[in-house]
Structure formats: structure tokens, C-alpha cells
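Your task
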Amino acid sequence: MSVYKRGDKGVSYMNFTVNGVRVFKSTGKFTKKEAKQVEALERHKMMSEASLTPQERAAKMQLLDAIDMVYEARWKYIRDSERTLSRAKSITTLIGNIPLSEVNGDAIAQLKNKLEKKKVEPATINRYLANLKTVLNHHEQSIRHIKLRKEKKGRIRVISKLEEQNVLTLLRSTIHT
């Protein structure tokens, strides 16, 4: 029997298996008719998800859930894991907690525009985009629509007067020898 009453309160529970996955939980309903409807919806949902490929299943996943999975699988033990996780989660505040299938060119453009309005440097925008690419790549979603920005070549360092004198002295001594 897949639907039955359990406990003193008379709440109905459902118990069934779809493709080797057992579902045993409360329906939250007190009448058998309502409980059977909840069970039928749950069974239909399980059967439709069973026919999906892993990529299709991941495409339905919310961005925040996908980020949490990538954190556990890839970022948890890296040196800067907390900052990486924080940056990735802030993407959801900028473009919303959307399904992975909706992370497309428009969502990327929206993310870039919002970061530019905050006067964020191109290198920082690239860190956000790189985190997003990692999440999408981990869940085998397309990343071809994510293009990184051009970054500056690096930092410009100005040497002190003492360093300048040391370099000149070194150069003069190598030329005269």
C-alpha cells in the first residue's frame, strides 16, 4: 500500500519506489483522497525526472544550489575558499537565483553591467565570471557565452631613490669590467 495513515494525528504517509529510489514521507494530508493526489503528483515528478539526462537535471537546478555543490566538490579545500564562495553567492544577488539553464548571454550581460555600475575593475569582473564558469562547467552546462574582459598587464612598481642608486652602481660596475 503506497498511502496509509500513521501516528496519533492521522496524517497520511506515502511509500513507493521509482527506478530504485524509495520515497517515504508525509503527504501532510488527513484524508485518503487528498493523500493519494499528493502521492500521484510526487510519483509523476519522480518518473519525469528519472527520464532526464544529468545535464538536463542540472539545467533545472537553481544557481545557489549549484554553487553549494561546487563549493563542496572543488572549492572547500582551496586557500581562498570563503572569498570564492562569497563572490559566487553574490552573483545570485546580482542576477537572481535562477536555474542554470537561464544563465545565458543576457544574464551574463546583466551581471557585467551591474558590476560596472559599481565601478568594479575588469580583473574583478573576470573573477566573478571565472567562478560562474566553474559552476557551469562542473554541472556540464555551456560556457561558450562567457567571455572574459581584457585585463591590465600587471602592477606598475616605482623604485625608490636608494634602489635606483643600487641599480646604477651595479650597471656601472658591469660596464667597466
